[in-house]
Amino acid sequence: MSAFVYILRCRDDRYYYGSTSDLVQRLAEHQTGHVRSTKPRLPVQLVYFEACQTLGQARQKEHALKNGRTRRKVIDQMIRSFPPERLAPFACP
Fold this sequence. Notes:
By secondary structure, the protein is α+β, with helices and mostly antiparallel strands. Helices cover 38% and strands 23% of the residues. The protein has helices spanning 23-31, 55-66, 72-81, 84-87; strands spanning 3-9, 15-20, 45-52. The chain is globular.
């Protein structure tokens, strides 16, 4: 697994969808205000991520989440059913 698609919940309760090859570093960039899209919506919280074989696959999944093919209730269900223990290593101190 060399890439991830992820969902963040922002302070305004909206979601941010992204993809990256380094999830830990990308989350740090979001949390420290180095990402223009999320900087005014801090703090952000990781609520879902999925490992992909390639960055291209992760970007395709990100695009599917963003463009409306994936309905909001499906996204909410993905987040609700995501095991919280998988998010624990990424929790803010």
